[in-house]
TrEMBL record:
Protein name: Molybdopterin-guanine dinucleotide biosynthesis protein MobB
Organism: Massilia varians
Lineage start: Bacteria, Pseudomonadati, Pseudomonadota, Betaproteobacteria, Burkholderiales
Domain of life where this protein originates: Bacteria
Chain intervals for the UniProt region annotation (Disordered): 131-151
Segments forming domain Molybdopterin-guanine dinucleotide biosynthesis protein B (MobB): 1-133
PANTHER family: MOLYBDOPTERIN-GUANINE DINUCLEOTIDE BIOSYNTHESIS ADAPTER PROTEIN, MOLYBDOPTERIN-GUANINE DINUCLEOTIDE BIOSYNTHESIS ADAPTER PROTEIN-RELATED
Pfam family, one: MobB
């Protein structure tokens, strides 16, 4: 599992699209957990599955020959923990988690200085690498920090990911 974190608008989803396409193209099975702070509407309100959910069903599984979706209504209950979501996923070679920036897990930060938001890596020891469109800040000599990757060079990010995955394979 690898978290991909960063502020909204930093390019996390765009980077993930490229990485997932290339990894899946190699035959790897990739799962993704995408966190959203917004209400998510996955089905038109008049469809049968929405009507059943709105009638009070705790969960509705929508199954077709093309995909399966499980919609769970929290009904003002607590948001499930990331671990609970991960437990529901099928086995995969790699699970990428977009969001959940404050969870403890190995992470890749997507950082764009132009957004005017602070980098996360100085305060998060779980960030192993930073993919950025800006130069690496100079720190005290001898201080180890995360790998600094060019966000505009997906091959470089993929090479880092391959190196990180190798001992976990």
């Amino acid at each position: 599992m690898l978290g991909v974190v960063g502020w909204s608008g930093s390019g996390k989803t765009s980077l993930l699209e490229v990485l997932i396409a290339r990894l899946a193209g190699r035959g790897l099975r990739i799962n993704v957990v995408k966190h959203s702070h917004h209400d998510v509407e996955l089905e038109p309100p008049r469809k049968d599955s929405a009507r059943l959910r709105m009638a009070g069903a705790a969960e509705v599984m929508l199954a077709s020959p093309y995909r399966v979706a499980i919609l769970r209504e929290l009904r003002a209950g607590p948001e499930p923990a990331l671990a609970e979501h991960l437990a529901r996923l099928a086995p995969a070679d790699l699970t990428l988690v977009e969001g959940y920036k404050w969870e403890r897990m190995p992470k890749l930060e997507v950082f764009r200085p132009s957004l005017g938001r602070p980098a996360l890596y100085p305060d998060d020891p779980d960030i192993l690498a930073v993919a950025s469109d800006g130069p690496q800040p100079q720190g005290p000599s001898g201080e180890g920090g995360p790998a600094w990757l060019d966000l505009n060079d997906p091959d470089q990010v993929l090479a880092w990911l391959d190196t990180w995955l190798r001992p976990r394979a």
